[in-house]
Amino acid sequence: MLKEAKAQKTRIRALDQLHRGDEIEAHLSVGPSYDDVVIRRGSVQDTAPGIGVVWIMDRVSGMRKAVNADECSLWRVA
């Protein structure tokens, strides 16, 4: 049986580190005793660093979604 390779994740601390087509996840902290929850995953479509928003093409819904970087942590998925 083959093991599935786990994706490596890198924390994005500034939106200017992102480029169109980057695969990212948005994580939301639900409490000190719990791991962060992935609320969105998709490829970057556009960024607005001045207002702290990144737009992604969401993998689950197939729709364009806005993610507020002030409300969650962003991670690049390799």
Describe this structure in words.
The structure is a single chain. This protein is mostly beta strands and about 80 residues long. Helices cover about 0% and strands about 50% of the residues. The protein is built from no helices and 6 strands. It is globular and about 45 Å long. The two termini are about 25 Å apart.
Task: List its traits.
78 residues; mainly beta; six-stranded antiparallel β-sheet; 6 strands; 0% helix
Describe the protein's topology.
Blueprint: E1 9-12, E2 23-28, E3 37-48, E4 53-58, E5 64-68, E6 73-77
Antiparallel strand pairs: 1-6, 2-3, 2-6, 3-4, 4-5
Number of strands: 6
Low-confidence stretches: none
General shape = globular
What structural class do the secondary elements suggest? mainly beta
